[in-house]
Amino acid sequence: MVTIYTDGSSRGNPGPGGFGTVLLSGNHRKEISGGYRKTTNNRMELLAVIAGLEALKKTNTEVLIYSDSKYVVDSVEKGWLWGWVKKGFKGKQNADLWKRFIPVYKLQKVKFKWVKGHAGIPENERCDQLAVEAATQPNLPPDIEYEANGLRTDR
To answer: pLDDT (tens digit, 9 = 90+) per residue, 3-37?
Structure first.
């Protein structure tokens, strides 16, 4: 069993953004973060989940992901994502990241749990700290797909 906590941050929407991910399994702990010069909060929330899943070395693992993003949690748990797939993501934002998410998601046995952000959950708070720190680094790289397809604000 692996537990993954995630959070995304955007200093403006769009603006500089970052993500933070904490993976826990037994006595093992791994922290992952990264940032981009211009992106959105929803992209960073989703990228935090992707980074956690991509870090897993084994497949078919039970994974519980804690996220304060209704966008990410509801998209998967309520099945919206699979409808978007059937429609070729027509008119949907962040299609590039959802297409990256799907293969790593399918390798595992993933469940999501929504948690209230900034509610004192230690690992969620740590993810927020990682995301904010990543978003405020100098010389952040571009979020190439986002910048190439026009700067729109997520909903």
So the answer is: 999 999 999 889 999 999 999 999 999 999 999 99
SS3 of residue 36 by DSSP: strand
**Which secondary-structure segment (H or E) carries 148?**
helix 144-148
Catalytic machinery residues: 7-8, 45, 68, 118, 128
Smallest CA-to-CA distance from 36 within 46, 28, 25 is with: 46
- Tell me the angle at which helices 41-54 and 122-135 cross, rounded to the nearest 10 degrees: 110
Selection from 140, 134, 136, 146 nearest residue 7 by Cα = 134
- pLDDT value of residue 150: 61
Percent of the chain with pLDDT over 90: 88
Please give the pLDDT value at position 12. 87
Identify which of 87, 86, 101 has the alpha carbon closest to the alpha carbon of residue 42.
101
Q: φ and ψ at 112, to 5 degrees?
A: -110, 145
> Coil, strand or helix: which one is 58?
coil
Distance CA 121, CA 20 (A): 14
Q: Give SS3 for 30.
A: strand
pTM: 0.94
